[in-house]
Protein backbone atom coordinates (compact mmCIF):
# COMPACT_ATOMS: atom_id res chain seq x y z
CA UNK A 1 0.00 0.00 0.00
CA UNK A 2 1.52 3.33 -1.10
CA UNK A 3 2.17 6.28 1.25
CA UNK A 4 -0.19 8.43 -0.82
CA UNK A 5 -2.99 5.90 -0.26
CA UNK A 6 -2.30 5.96 3.52
CA UNK A 7 -2.52 9.76 3.49
CA UNK A 8 -5.80 9.59 1.57
CA UNK A 9 -7.28 7.17 4.12
CA UNK A 10 -6.20 9.43 7.01
CA UNK A 11 -7.80 12.46 5.32
CA UNK A 12 -11.04 10.55 4.71
CA UNK A 13 -11.16 9.44 8.38
CA UNK A 14 -10.49 13.01 9.59
CA UNK A 15 -13.14 14.43 7.29
CA UNK A 16 -15.65 11.80 8.42
CA UNK A 17 -14.96 12.65 12.07
CA UNK A 18 -15.49 16.33 11.37
CA UNK A 19 -18.78 15.63 9.61
CA UNK A 20 -19.98 13.40 12.46
CA UNK A 21 -18.95 16.01 15.03
CA UNK A 22 -20.71 18.73 13.08
CA UNK A 23 -23.94 16.71 12.85
CA UNK A 24 -23.76 15.82 16.55
CA UNK A 25 -23.07 19.43 17.46
CA UNK A 26 -26.04 20.62 15.41
CA UNK A 27 -28.48 18.09 16.85
CA UNK A 28 -27.14 18.69 20.38
CA UNK A 29 -27.64 22.41 20.04
CA UNK A 30 -31.19 22.21 18.72
CA UNK A 31 -32.41 20.85 22.04
CA UNK A 32 -31.36 24.09 23.80
CA UNK A 33 -30.70 26.83 21.29
CA UNK A 34 -33.32 28.78 19.32
CA UNK A 35 -34.40 27.25 15.98
CA UNK A 36 -32.71 28.17 12.72
CA UNK A 37 -31.81 26.91 9.25
CA UNK A 38 -30.35 23.39 9.16
CA UNK A 39 -26.54 23.63 9.07
CA UNK A 40 -24.41 21.68 6.61
CA UNK A 41 -21.44 19.63 7.89
CA UNK A 42 -18.31 21.73 8.58
CA UNK A 43 -19.46 24.93 6.81
CA UNK A 44 -22.70 25.30 8.79
CA UNK A 45 -24.96 27.92 7.17
CA UNK A 46 -22.15 29.77 5.40
CA UNK A 47 -23.43 28.80 1.93
CA UNK A 48 -26.90 30.12 2.79
CA UNK A 49 -25.66 33.54 3.89
CA UNK A 50 -24.41 36.19 1.47
CA UNK A 51 -21.33 37.49 3.31
CA UNK A 52 -21.39 40.68 1.22
CA UNK A 53 -24.76 41.55 2.75
CA UNK A 54 -25.21 39.58 5.96
CA UNK A 55 -27.72 42.13 7.23
CA UNK A 56 -30.23 41.45 4.45
CA UNK A 57 -29.89 37.68 4.90
CA UNK A 58 -30.55 37.97 8.64
CA UNK A 59 -33.71 40.01 7.99
CA UNK A 60 -34.97 37.28 5.62
CA UNK A 61 -34.16 34.50 8.13
CA UNK A 62 -35.98 36.43 10.89
CA UNK A 63 -39.19 36.26 8.84
CA UNK A 64 -38.97 32.45 8.96
CA UNK A 65 -37.57 31.85 12.45
CA UNK A 66 -38.61 34.88 14.50
CA UNK A 67 -36.61 37.52 16.42
CA UNK A 68 -34.24 35.02 18.12
CA UNK A 69 -32.72 32.24 16.02
CA UNK A 70 -29.51 30.27 15.54
CA UNK A 71 -27.13 30.16 12.58
CA UNK A 72 -23.85 28.27 12.24
CA UNK A 73 -20.77 30.05 10.93
CA UNK A 74 -18.74 26.91 10.43
CA UNK A 75 -19.07 24.51 13.38
CA UNK A 76 -19.96 27.13 15.97
CA UNK A 77 -23.53 28.23 16.69
CA UNK A 78 -24.34 31.95 16.82
CA UNK A 79 -27.60 33.15 18.35
CA UNK A 80 -29.04 36.11 16.42
CA UNK A 81 -31.16 38.86 17.99
CA UNK A 82 -33.35 40.73 15.51
CA UNK A 83 -35.61 43.69 16.26
CA UNK A 84 -35.76 46.27 19.06
CA UNK A 85 -37.53 44.12 21.68
CA UNK A 86 -35.07 41.21 21.49
CA UNK A 87 -32.01 43.52 21.26
CA UNK A 88 -33.15 45.65 24.22
CA UNK A 89 -33.94 42.55 26.30
CA UNK A 90 -30.42 41.21 25.70
CA UNK A 91 -28.19 44.32 25.74
CA UNK A 92 -30.02 46.54 28.22
CA UNK A 93 -32.37 44.49 30.42
CA UNK A 94 -29.81 41.67 30.80
CA UNK A 95 -26.68 43.69 30.08
CA UNK A 96 -24.30 41.82 32.39
CA UNK A 97 -25.16 38.38 31.00
CA UNK A 98 -24.53 39.53 27.41
CA UNK A 99 -21.42 41.60 28.15
CA UNK A 100 -18.66 39.27 26.92
CA UNK A 101 -17.00 39.76 23.54
CA UNK A 102 -17.66 36.88 21.17
CA UNK A 103 -15.04 34.91 19.27
CA UNK A 104 -13.52 36.80 16.30
CA UNK A 105 -10.41 34.82 15.26
CA UNK A 106 -9.01 37.24 12.67
CA UNK A 107 -8.66 39.97 15.32
CA UNK A 108 -7.80 37.62 18.20
CA UNK A 109 -4.55 36.85 16.37
CA UNK A 110 -3.67 40.53 16.80
CA UNK A 111 -5.11 41.51 20.17
CA UNK A 112 -4.42 38.29 22.12
CA UNK A 113 -7.33 39.13 24.43
CA UNK A 114 -5.90 42.56 25.36
CA UNK A 115 -7.15 46.14 24.92
CA UNK A 116 -10.74 47.40 25.19
CA UNK A 117 -12.65 46.09 22.20
CA UNK A 118 -11.80 42.37 22.15
CA UNK A 119 -10.92 41.65 25.79
CA UNK A 120 -13.13 40.02 28.42
CA UNK A 121 -13.45 39.62 32.18
CA UNK A 122 -11.35 41.67 34.60
CA UNK A 123 -8.98 42.83 31.87
CA UNK A 124 -11.84 44.36 29.88
CA UNK A 125 -13.56 45.96 32.90
CA UNK A 126 -10.39 47.52 34.30
CA UNK A 127 -9.03 48.75 30.95
CA UNK A 128 -12.38 50.19 29.83
CA UNK A 129 -13.06 51.90 33.17
CA UNK A 130 -9.56 53.43 33.19
CA UNK A 131 -9.83 54.61 29.55
CA UNK A 132 -13.19 56.30 30.15
CA UNK A 133 -11.77 58.01 33.24
CA UNK A 134 -8.81 59.36 31.24
CA UNK A 135 -11.08 60.66 28.47
CA UNK A 136 -13.21 62.47 31.08
CA UNK A 137 -10.10 63.95 32.70
CA UNK A 138 -8.85 65.19 29.34
CA UNK A 139 -12.24 66.75 28.65
CA UNK A 140 -11.84 68.93 31.73
CA UNK A 141 -8.22 70.03 31.24
CA UNK A 142 -6.82 73.42 30.20
CA UNK A 143 -7.23 72.51 26.56
CA UNK A 144 -10.30 70.32 26.37
CA UNK A 145 -11.11 67.75 23.72
CA UNK A 146 -13.71 70.18 22.34
CA UNK A 147 -11.00 72.83 21.90
CA UNK A 148 -8.87 70.34 20.00
CA UNK A 149 -11.74 69.32 17.72
CA UNK A 150 -12.43 73.00 16.97
CA UNK A 151 -8.76 73.51 16.10
CA UNK A 152 -8.75 70.51 13.80
CA UNK A 153 -11.96 71.68 12.12
CA UNK A 154 -10.41 75.11 11.46
CA UNK A 155 -7.31 73.47 9.91
CA UNK A 156 -9.58 71.43 7.66
CA UNK A 157 -11.55 74.52 6.59
CA UNK A 158 -8.31 76.38 5.82
CA UNK A 159 -7.12 73.48 3.69
CA UNK A 160 -10.40 73.15 1.78
CA UNK A 161 -10.32 76.85 0.88
CA UNK A 162 -7.22 76.13 -1.22
CA UNK A 163 -8.79 73.50 -3.44
CA UNK A 164 -11.82 73.16 -5.69
CA UNK A 165 -12.08 69.38 -5.56
CA UNK A 166 -11.01 67.02 -2.81
CA UNK A 167 -11.05 63.31 -2.01
CA UNK A 168 -12.38 61.96 1.26
CA UNK A 169 -8.77 61.61 2.45
CA UNK A 170 -8.72 64.99 4.20
CA UNK A 171 -11.67 64.03 6.39
CA UNK A 172 -9.96 60.75 7.32
CA UNK A 173 -6.77 62.60 8.18
CA UNK A 174 -8.69 65.18 10.21
CA UNK A 175 -10.27 62.49 12.41
CA UNK A 176 -6.95 60.65 12.57
CA UNK A 177 -5.31 63.80 13.93
CA UNK A 178 -7.95 64.09 16.63
CA UNK A 179 -7.11 60.58 17.81
CA UNK A 180 -3.44 61.62 17.91
CA UNK A 181 -4.23 64.61 20.11
CA UNK A 182 -5.80 62.36 22.73
CA UNK A 183 -3.38 59.45 22.58
CA UNK A 184 -0.12 61.22 21.78
CA UNK A 185 -0.32 64.84 23.01
CA UNK A 186 -1.36 66.34 19.69
CA UNK A 187 1.62 65.20 17.64
CA UNK A 188 -0.46 65.32 14.47
CA UNK A 189 0.16 65.13 10.77
CA UNK A 190 1.24 68.41 9.19
CA UNK A 191 -1.41 68.87 6.50
CA UNK A 192 0.65 71.11 4.25
CA UNK A 193 3.87 69.14 4.14
CA UNK A 194 2.91 65.52 4.60
CA UNK A 195 -0.18 64.80 2.53
CA UNK A 196 1.66 62.82 -0.13
CA UNK A 197 3.75 60.66 2.14
CA UNK A 198 0.93 60.07 4.63
CA UNK A 199 -1.76 59.25 2.09
CA UNK A 200 -0.34 55.74 1.93
CA UNK A 201 -0.21 55.41 5.71
CA UNK A 202 -3.88 55.65 6.63
CA UNK A 203 -4.13 52.62 8.95
CA UNK A 204 -5.50 49.42 7.47
CA UNK A 205 -8.14 48.00 9.80
CA UNK A 206 -11.04 45.65 9.23
CA UNK A 207 -13.28 48.52 8.17
CA UNK A 208 -10.99 49.61 5.31
CA UNK A 209 -10.84 46.32 3.44
CA UNK A 210 -12.80 45.85 0.24
CA UNK A 211 -16.01 43.86 -0.04
CA UNK A 212 -13.97 40.94 -1.43
CA UNK A 213 -11.72 40.96 1.63
CA UNK A 214 -14.71 41.24 3.96
CA UNK A 215 -16.03 37.95 2.56
CA UNK A 216 -12.65 36.32 3.26
CA UNK A 217 -12.68 37.49 6.88
CA UNK A 218 -16.12 35.99 7.41
CA UNK A 219 -14.79 32.67 6.11
CA UNK A 220 -11.63 33.02 8.22
CA UNK A 221 -13.70 33.52 11.37
CA UNK A 222 -15.75 30.41 10.56
CA UNK A 223 -12.80 28.28 9.46
CA UNK A 224 -9.63 29.45 11.31
CA UNK A 225 -7.54 26.85 9.45
CA UNK A 226 -7.42 29.45 6.66
CA UNK A 227 -4.82 31.19 8.85
CA UNK A 228 -2.18 28.93 7.31
CA UNK A 229 -3.15 29.73 3.71
CA UNK A 230 -2.38 32.87 1.67
CA UNK A 231 -4.97 35.63 1.91
CA UNK A 232 -5.67 39.26 2.83
CA UNK A 233 -5.37 38.39 6.54
CA UNK A 234 -1.60 38.35 5.97
CA UNK A 235 -1.80 42.03 4.90
CA UNK A 236 -3.72 42.86 8.07
CA UNK A 237 -1.17 41.07 10.29
CA UNK A 238 1.81 42.65 8.51
CA UNK A 239 0.23 46.08 8.77
CA UNK A 240 -0.38 45.57 12.48
CA UNK A 241 3.28 44.58 12.98
CA UNK A 242 4.35 47.94 11.50
CA UNK A 243 1.81 49.83 13.59
CA UNK A 244 2.99 48.04 16.74
CA UNK A 245 6.58 49.16 16.03
CA UNK A 246 5.38 52.74 15.64
CA UNK A 247 3.31 52.59 18.85
CA UNK A 248 6.28 51.19 20.81
CA UNK A 249 8.47 54.04 19.54
CA UNK A 250 5.91 56.56 20.79
CA UNK A 251 5.70 54.85 24.19
CA UNK A 252 9.50 54.93 24.49
CA UNK A 253 9.51 58.69 23.76
CA UNK A 254 6.91 59.17 26.50
CA UNK A 255 8.89 57.10 29.01
CA UNK A 256 11.95 59.30 28.44
CA UNK A 257 10.07 62.56 29.08
CA UNK A 258 7.39 61.43 31.56
CA UNK A 259 6.39 63.78 34.38
CA UNK A 260 4.15 61.81 36.75
CA UNK A 261 2.68 65.06 38.12
CA UNK A 262 1.76 66.44 34.71
CA UNK A 263 0.32 63.78 32.33
CA UNK A 264 0.00 65.10 28.78
CA UNK A 265 -2.09 62.43 27.09
CA UNK A 266 -3.46 58.89 27.28
CA UNK A 267 -0.03 57.24 27.05
CA UNK A 268 1.23 59.26 30.02
CA UNK A 269 -1.80 58.36 32.13
CA UNK A 270 -1.33 54.66 31.34
CA UNK A 271 2.42 54.71 32.09
CA UNK A 272 1.75 56.37 35.46
CA UNK A 273 -0.83 53.67 36.25
CA UNK A 274 1.71 51.00 35.25
CA UNK A 275 4.28 52.50 37.63
CA UNK A 276 1.78 52.56 40.51
CA UNK A 277 0.94 48.89 39.96
CA UNK A 278 4.40 47.58 39.10
CA UNK A 279 4.49 45.36 42.21
CA UNK A 280 1.06 43.90 41.53
CA UNK A 281 1.64 40.65 39.61
CA UNK A 282 -2.04 40.49 38.62
CA UNK A 283 -2.17 44.04 37.27
CA UNK A 284 -3.90 44.51 33.91
CA UNK A 285 -1.74 47.58 33.22
CA UNK A 286 1.13 46.11 31.23
CA UNK A 287 3.14 47.24 28.22
CA UNK A 288 1.37 44.67 26.01
CA UNK A 289 -2.04 45.91 27.11
CA UNK A 290 -1.02 49.54 26.49
CA UNK A 291 0.02 48.76 22.91
CA UNK A 292 -3.26 47.01 22.07
CA UNK A 293 -5.38 49.63 23.86
CA UNK A 294 -3.76 52.38 21.77
CA UNK A 295 -4.30 50.31 18.62
CA UNK A 296 -7.96 49.80 19.58
CA UNK A 297 -8.54 53.49 20.22
CA UNK A 298 -6.79 54.67 17.09
CA UNK A 299 -8.28 52.06 14.75
CA UNK A 300 -11.84 52.27 16.03
CA UNK A 301 -11.79 56.04 16.55
CA UNK A 302 -10.40 56.82 13.11
CA UNK A 303 -12.30 54.42 10.87
CA UNK A 304 -15.80 54.72 12.29
CA UNK A 305 -15.99 58.51 12.50
CA UNK A 306 -14.24 59.21 9.20
CA UNK A 307 -16.46 56.72 7.35
CA UNK A 308 -19.56 58.30 8.89
CA UNK A 309 -18.39 61.76 7.84
CA UNK A 310 -17.52 60.55 4.35
CA UNK A 311 -20.93 58.95 3.93
CA UNK A 312 -22.65 61.98 5.47
CA UNK A 313 -21.14 64.38 2.93
CA UNK A 314 -22.26 62.06 0.12
CA UNK A 315 -25.84 62.07 1.44
CA UNK A 316 -25.82 65.88 1.63
CA UNK A 317 -24.59 66.01 -1.98
CA UNK A 318 -27.53 63.80 -2.91
CA UNK A 319 -29.95 66.01 -0.93
CA UNK A 320 -28.85 69.66 -1.41
CA UNK A 321 -32.13 70.92 0.03
CA UNK A 322 -31.22 69.32 3.40
CA UNK A 323 -27.71 70.82 3.33
CA UNK A 324 -29.28 74.24 2.59
CA UNK A 325 -31.60 73.98 5.63
CA UNK A 326 -28.60 73.12 7.85
CA UNK A 327 -26.78 76.19 6.50
CA UNK A 328 -29.82 78.38 7.25
CA UNK A 329 -29.78 77.14 10.86
CA UNK A 330 -26.02 77.71 11.12
CA UNK A 331 -26.43 81.31 9.86
CA UNK A 332 -29.27 81.95 12.34
CA UNK A 333 -27.64 80.43 15.44
CA UNK A 334 -23.86 80.70 14.92
CA UNK A 335 -23.32 83.18 12.10
CA UNK A 336 -20.09 83.42 10.13
CA UNK A 337 -17.72 85.05 12.60
CA UNK A 338 -17.11 82.39 15.25
CA UNK A 339 -16.49 78.64 15.29
CA UNK A 340 -19.32 76.23 16.18
CA UNK A 341 -19.27 74.86 19.74
CA UNK A 342 -21.15 72.06 21.49
CA UNK A 343 -23.42 74.54 23.31
CA UNK A 344 -24.88 75.42 19.90
CA UNK A 345 -26.29 71.93 19.40
CA UNK A 346 -29.25 72.37 21.75
CA UNK A 347 -30.35 75.41 19.70
CA UNK A 348 -29.90 73.61 16.36
CA UNK A 349 -32.51 70.83 16.31
CA UNK A 350 -32.47 70.40 12.53
CA UNK A 351 -28.67 70.02 12.33
CA UNK A 352 -28.76 67.62 15.29
CA UNK A 353 -31.45 65.60 13.51
CA UNK A 354 -29.36 65.50 10.31
CA UNK A 355 -26.31 64.13 12.18
CA UNK A 356 -28.50 61.47 13.85
CA UNK A 357 -30.17 60.58 10.56
CA UNK A 358 -26.79 60.16 8.84
CA UNK A 359 -25.79 57.63 11.49
CA UNK A 360 -29.15 55.86 11.40
CA UNK A 361 -29.34 55.71 7.61
CA UNK A 362 -25.81 54.50 6.87
CA UNK A 363 -26.02 51.74 9.51
CA UNK A 364 -22.23 51.64 9.89
CA UNK A 365 -21.85 48.28 11.68
CA UNK A 366 -25.00 46.35 10.67
CA UNK A 367 -24.45 43.28 12.85
CA UNK A 368 -22.31 44.86 15.57
CA UNK A 369 -19.18 43.09 16.81
CA UNK A 370 -19.97 39.63 18.24
CA UNK A 371 -21.09 39.36 21.86
CA UNK A 372 -21.05 36.23 24.01
CA UNK A 373 -23.00 35.17 27.08
CA UNK A 374 -21.08 35.16 30.36
CA UNK A 375 -22.89 32.10 31.80
CA UNK A 376 -25.53 29.50 30.93
CA UNK A 377 -28.73 31.52 30.62
CA UNK A 378 -32.44 30.96 30.08
CA UNK A 379 -33.61 33.41 27.44
CA UNK A 380 -37.33 33.23 26.80
CA UNK A 381 -37.94 29.51 26.15
CA UNK A 382 -34.34 28.80 25.13
CA UNK A 383 -31.18 27.80 26.99
CA UNK A 384 -28.01 29.50 25.72
CA UNK A 385 -24.77 27.90 27.00
CA UNK A 386 -21.96 30.02 28.43
CA UNK A 387 -19.58 31.34 25.77
CA UNK A 388 -22.07 31.08 22.89
CA UNK A 389 -21.54 33.78 20.27
CA UNK A 390 -24.35 36.33 20.00
CA UNK A 391 -24.98 38.46 16.92
CA UNK A 392 -26.89 41.71 17.53
CA UNK A 393 -28.66 42.89 14.38
CA UNK A 394 -28.45 46.68 14.82
CA UNK A 395 -29.88 47.22 11.32
CA UNK A 396 -33.22 45.83 12.43
CA UNK A 397 -33.37 48.50 15.15
CA UNK A 398 -32.07 51.47 13.13
CA UNK A 399 -34.40 50.59 10.22
CA UNK A 400 -37.50 49.74 12.24
CA UNK A 401 -40.53 50.74 10.12
CA UNK A 402 -42.76 51.76 13.04
CA UNK A 403 -40.17 53.95 14.74
CA UNK A 404 -38.75 55.38 11.48
CA UNK A 405 -41.44 55.45 8.73
CA UNK A 406 -39.89 54.77 5.31
CA UNK A 407 -36.57 53.73 6.93
CA UNK A 408 -34.83 53.36 3.56
CA UNK A 409 -35.34 57.07 2.94
CA UNK A 410 -32.85 59.67 4.19
CA UNK A 411 -35.12 61.96 6.21
CA UNK A 412 -34.06 64.15 9.19
CA UNK A 413 -37.76 64.23 10.10
CA UNK A 414 -37.19 60.85 11.74
CA UNK A 415 -35.66 62.83 14.64
CA UNK A 416 -37.99 65.86 14.69
CA UNK A 417 -41.42 66.29 16.30
CA UNK A 418 -44.35 68.17 14.77
CA UNK A 419 -43.01 71.47 16.12
CA UNK A 420 -39.55 70.97 14.62
CA UNK A 421 -37.91 70.18 17.97
CA UNK A 422 -35.32 67.42 18.24
CA UNK A 423 -36.90 64.07 19.16
CA UNK A 424 -34.85 61.40 20.95
CA UNK A 425 -35.35 57.74 20.11
CA UNK A 426 -34.53 54.61 22.12
CA UNK A 427 -34.04 52.91 18.75
CA UNK A 428 -30.99 55.06 17.96
CA UNK A 429 -28.21 52.51 18.57
CA UNK A 430 -25.37 53.18 16.10
CA UNK A 431 -22.93 52.90 19.02
CA UNK A 432 -24.62 49.67 20.23
CA UNK A 433 -26.05 49.62 23.78
CA UNK A 434 -25.50 48.17 27.24
CA UNK A 435 -22.14 47.26 28.77
CA UNK A 436 -20.34 47.11 25.39
CA UNK A 437 -21.57 50.46 24.08
CA UNK A 438 -18.77 52.26 22.20
CA UNK A 439 -16.34 53.83 24.69
CA UNK A 440 -15.74 56.74 22.30
CA UNK A 441 -19.41 57.62 21.79
CA UNK A 442 -19.27 61.12 23.30
CA UNK A 443 -16.06 61.93 21.40
CA UNK A 444 -17.54 60.73 18.09
CA UNK A 445 -20.73 62.77 18.64
CA UNK A 446 -18.64 65.91 19.22
CA UNK A 447 -16.48 65.28 16.15
CA UNK A 448 -19.43 64.69 13.84
CA UNK A 449 -21.34 67.78 14.97
CA UNK A 450 -18.39 70.21 15.07
CA UNK A 451 -16.68 69.12 11.84
CA UNK A 452 -19.91 68.94 9.82
CA UNK A 453 -21.14 72.36 11.00
CA UNK A 454 -17.68 73.89 10.40
CA UNK A 455 -17.67 72.61 6.82
CA UNK A 456 -21.22 73.79 6.06
CA UNK A 457 -20.62 77.13 7.79
CA UNK A 458 -17.86 77.87 5.29
CA UNK A 459 -18.72 75.91 2.13
CA UNK A 460 -21.51 74.83 -0.14
CA UNK A 461 -21.06 71.24 -1.29
CA UNK A 462 -21.10 70.90 -5.06
CA UNK A 463 -21.27 67.46 -6.75
CA UNK A 464 -19.53 66.80 -10.07
CA UNK A 465 -22.72 65.15 -11.42
CA UNK A 466 -26.45 65.85 -11.14
CA UNK A 467 -27.62 64.98 -7.59
CA UNK A 468 -30.27 62.70 -9.12
CA UNK A 469 -27.45 60.59 -10.61
CA UNK A 470 -25.58 60.17 -7.31
CA UNK A 471 -25.73 56.55 -6.12
CA UNK A 472 -25.48 56.29 -2.32
CA UNK A 473 -25.66 52.47 -2.27
CA UNK A 474 -22.80 51.08 -0.15
CA UNK A 475 -20.18 48.98 -1.91
CA UNK A 476 -20.25 46.51 0.98
CA UNK A 477 -22.54 45.58 3.89
CA UNK A 478 -20.30 42.87 5.34
CA UNK A 479 -18.21 43.63 8.45
CA UNK A 480 -18.98 47.32 8.01
CA UNK A 481 -20.89 49.57 5.62
CA UNK A 482 -18.51 51.11 3.10
CA UNK A 483 -19.70 54.08 0.97
CA UNK A 484 -18.91 54.36 -2.74
CA UNK A 485 -15.96 56.50 -3.77
CA UNK A 486 -16.81 60.02 -4.95
CA UNK A 487 -15.41 63.51 -5.54
CA UNK A 488 -16.92 66.86 -4.69
CA UNK A 489 -16.15 70.59 -4.76
CA UNK A 490 -16.17 72.86 -1.71
CA UNK A 491 -17.46 76.30 -2.81
CA UNK A 492 -16.75 79.07 -0.25
CA UNK A 493 -19.96 80.80 0.92
From TrEMBL:
TM stretches of this protein: 7-24
Native organism: Otolemur garnettii (Small-eared galago)
Main localization, broad class: endoplasmic reticulum
GO cellular component: endoplasmic reticulum membrane
Membrane-protein topology: Peripheral membrane protein
InterPro entries xref list: Cyt_P450 (IPR001128), Cyt_P450_CS (IPR017972), Cyt_P450_E_grp-I (IPR002401), Cyt_P450_sf (IPR036396), Cytochrome_P450_fam2 (IPR050182)
Name assigned to this protein: Cytochrome P450 family 2 subfamily C member 76
GO biological process: organic acid metabolic process; terpenoid metabolic process; xenobiotic metabolic process
UniProt KW keywords: Endoplasmic reticulum, Heme, Iron, Membrane, Metal-binding, Microsome, Monooxygenase, Oxidoreductase, Transmembrane, Transmembrane helix
Gene Ontology MF: a single term: oxidoreductase activity, acting on paired donors, with incorporation or reduction of molecular oxygen, reduced flavin or flavoprotein as one donor, and incorporation of one atom of oxygen
Amino acid sequence: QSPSMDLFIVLVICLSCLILFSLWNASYGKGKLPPGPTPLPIVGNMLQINTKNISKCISMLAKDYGPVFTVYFGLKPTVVFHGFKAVKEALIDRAEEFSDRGSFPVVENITQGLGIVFSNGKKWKHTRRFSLMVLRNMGMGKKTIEDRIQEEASYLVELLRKTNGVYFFFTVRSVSNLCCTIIDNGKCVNYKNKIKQNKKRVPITLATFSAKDSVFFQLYNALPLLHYLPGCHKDLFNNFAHQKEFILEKIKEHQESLDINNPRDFIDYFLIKMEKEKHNEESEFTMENLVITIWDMFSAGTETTSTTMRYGLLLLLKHPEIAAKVQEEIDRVIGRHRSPCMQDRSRMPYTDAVVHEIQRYIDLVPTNLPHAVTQDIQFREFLIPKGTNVLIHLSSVLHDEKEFPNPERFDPGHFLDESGNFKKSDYFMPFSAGKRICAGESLARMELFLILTSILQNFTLKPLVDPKDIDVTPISNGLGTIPPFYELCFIPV
